[in-house]
Amino acid sequence: MATYAFLQGKFVPLEEAKLSVMTHAFLYGTAVFEGIRAYWSDEDNQLYIFRAKEHYERLANSCKIMRMSKKYSVMEMVELTRELLKLNSKKSNAYIRPVIYKSSTIVGVKLAGLEDDFLLFATEMGDYLDLQKGLKARVSSWRHVADNAIPMRCKVNGAYANAALIKTEALDDGYDEAIVLTEDGHVSEGSAENIFIVRNNTLVTPPETEDILGGITRDTIITLAKEELDIPVEIRRIDRTELYIADEVFFCGTGAQIAPVTLIDHRVVGDGSIGPVTQKLQGLYFKVVRGQLKAYKDWCTPVF
Ligand SMILES: Cc1ncc(COP(=O)(O)O)c(C=O)c1O
Predict the structure, then answer these.
(1) Residue 1 — pLDDT band, cuts 50, 70, 90?
(2) Which residue has the least CA distance to atom 4 on ligand 1?
């Protein structure tokens, strides 16, 4: 069964989806993207794209910041994503990567006066981070790019060179992930995930003004904690040393899902096991993404 991509206005077999070496986005990282998951539900015999609309709304905001024009409306991009997954006709989980990119083939750093295009492909992705073992994390020696350097609020491809430095250092040093601080030393997020800590039965996560990507999973968790689990949520600055005395810590993101952290900078988090708040949220999250909770079914776009 062929796998398709959407490129230059049409669906083509993935192996034919090629761009010129002179594409501006390749030369300078001038592209914005999303990572979206679709989950297969055996129960409903259906593939659900999770929070597709919110992902494309964020992509539209990224375009504004990076002075890109989008060829398709949010709902048209949702529809193209459904069409792609239908064409690929796989009855299994998928990871979807839409990209809006500076498509002009030209040398010269700028944003204005260039052409933009939209591409889309889907691939398989298992668990990006381990969900069960409890991750080992370090505080990165790299700082996070700041809003007035490369804004993390928009998911710009070029910013992921920072993420790659952060992640590679962590892996080289024997950790699974890294926690990145802002320029002024407060907790920002993981290399490609948001972060929550639990202190005194309260979930705490940094605000969007701490150079984080305003994560859709983060928003899902905040909603589920408040509405379904009656767990208070504080959105506030987090000091580095709060990581060391937290009862629970976890990363979250479309790729990461909800990934518990049990060791940070050689300090055991809580009692070293996966805490009850993290466990409850994980359980609920995997039901919600498969359309099993009626109240959140409109977050799930059926493909077939
Ligand atoms: C830097 C960064 N922060 C946070 C996230 C989590 O965002 P979301 O939950 O919308 O996937 C991601 C992943 O997409 C990311 O790349």
Answers:
(1) low
(2) 193
